[in-house]
Design goal:
Length: 468
């Protein structure tokens, strides 16, 4: 992503609106124009995180001169024009006035986002609009690619041909079916080979929203479906280690939920945001997001959903090394789970059963360093998991292997690790690869224990996950 080197206006001189830049945006919304900027960046090999807020800051004159990455993108978009033509001040005029130094051409980026979107900052939601385009990443291999071939762009035309026919119930149903297909494929094969393919139906879904539905009920279905699709694609990014992209997708879903007043979608977006924050090493954000999810979900009447959200909160407390907070959240999760299923349970929660409850609890105890409890719950999770969920079986077994290794049982850990290696022939998940790598490091001093050498040798020969 572009580094945070754009120069804001100085406090002692009020910003002057950039009318030239506003004119080149034309009739497009800030979000639509931001999408064009990101697409232009991809065309020349740049990565910028342009969003509606960035466009607004430029037009307000808060950004007097863009950084080098944005400069290259803007000059590519508007051949023959200079930065001055686009309403920016010369770079020489803003250097040395409190601005952070701009990176030279070709320098490595120093920050993930130009202006990170905080999904917990409710004020910022009013200024965010849904993205239209998405980056495409890796291509998978083997069985995953064959399965992912079923994910087309919904067979929907875009552009002028899409505008000629307003979307109806059949298009809304196609978006909903794409969500189900992605979830089924992820359950079976993991995320790594699916992300690029899944971006295609997401682009198509947002093209449908841009076209505008003729009926309010259809529009509501499309918004809900596009939001759920953004979360599904975000999860694929999350599970394959692309945390920045996952955060963007989840934020998009949250903005859609807020714009349409959809508490179910809002709870789902916050739920995944909490999980991502935990994995990205931001436990306090994980707690806040999980609590926000619970506030959104409370009127929905689903005890199972509230149980899962309590587990998300527990994971955040564990990351903060707050054993009491974690245990209290785990008790709530178990009590709510015990109330059973209901008609109010969201469709996307089909994965959440006893196995997932045990698996997430195992992760909490592992984070707290209680390997014995973690081992017990991870073993139960792997035993209870439905065979259809190949990825989760591999995940829980990898968790078990790591907990056993850290609890001083290298032989059992190696046996569990070998089971995971067998499953990786059909499951592609960077998360699982990362867990196995950690287990291998713990087992290195125990090579003479039964099965450990075999596990270490097979793990060492494992192809590294491909990244796009």
């Amino acid at each position: 992503m572009a580094s945070s080197t754009d120069t804001p206006a100085q406090p002692d001189r009020p910003p002057r609106p950039n009318t030239a830049f506003r004119q080149v945006r034309g009739r497009r919304s800030p979000a639509e124009f931001a999408a064009l900027v990101r697409r232009a960046a991809r065309e020349i090999g740049e990565r910028v995180s342009c969003d509606a807020r960035y466009v607004g800051r430029v037009e307000a004159g808060e950004i007097r001169c863009p950084n080098y990455a944005y400069e290259r993108v803007f000059l590519h978009m508007f051949p023959g024009r200079t930065l001055t033509d686009l309403g920016f001040a010369p770079r020489s005029a803003v250097r040395g006035r409190g601005a952070r130094p701009s990176a030279p051409p070709g320098a490595l980026p120093v920050a993930a986002y130009e202006h990170p979107y905080d999904p917990l900052n409710h004020e910022s939601l009013n200024h965010e609009e849904s993205d239209v385009l998405r980056r495409a990443f890796m291509t998978g291999t083997g069985a995953t690619v064959a399965a992912a071939a079923t994910l087309g762009p919904l067979g929907i035309a875009t552009g002028a041909s899409a505008a000629a026919r307003r979307p109806g119930a059949s298009e809304a149903a196609a978006v909903e079916e794409a969500v189900r297909n992605i979830r089924l494929l992820d359950d079976k094969h993991g995320a790594d080979g699916l992300y690029r393919r899944a971006a295609e139906p997401l682009r198509a879904a947002y093209a449908l929203l841009d076209a505008g539905a003729t009926r309010q009920t259809t529009a509501e279905r499309l918004h809900a479906g596009a939001g759920e699709l953004a979360i599904s694609v975000g999860w694929l990014a999350h599970d394959s280690g692309r945390f920045d992209d996952a955060r963007s997708h989840y934020a998009e879903a949250l903005a859609t939920a807020r714009m349409t007043g959809d508490p179910g979608l809002e709870a789902h977006a916050f739920c995944n945001t909490a999980f991502l924050a935990r994995d990205a090493g931001r436990p306090r954000e994980a707690v806040r997001a999980a609590q926000a999810a619970q506030r959104a979900a409370r009127p929905l009447g689903s005890s199972r959903l509230m149980s899962l959200l309590a587990l998300r909160e527990a994971g955040g407390w564990a990351g903060l090394a707050d054993r009491t907070g974690c245990e209290q959240a785990l008790v709530r999760a178990q009590a709510l789970f015990g109330r059973g299923r209901s008609e109010a349970d969201p469709e996307w929660m089909s994965f959440y059963g006893e196995a997932e409850l045990a698996g997430l609890e195992a992760q909490c105890w592992s984070t707290l360093g209680d390997w014995r409890r973690a081992t017990r719950h991870a073993r139960r999770a792997a035993r209870l998991q439905d065979p259809h969920f190949s990825r989760n079986i591999a995940l829980y077994t990898a968790e078990l292997a790591d907990d056993l290794a850290r609890d001083g049982h290298p032989d059992e850990a190696a046996t569990a690790g070998l089971r995971v290696l067998d499953l990786l022939a059909q499951v592609q998940s960077s998360r699982i690869h990362t867990m196995l790598a950690g287990t291998a490091r713990v087992l290195l001093p125990h090579r003479r224990a039964t099965g450990v050498a075999d596990f270490l040798d097979r793990h060492a020969s494992l192809p590294r996950p491909r990244r796009g």
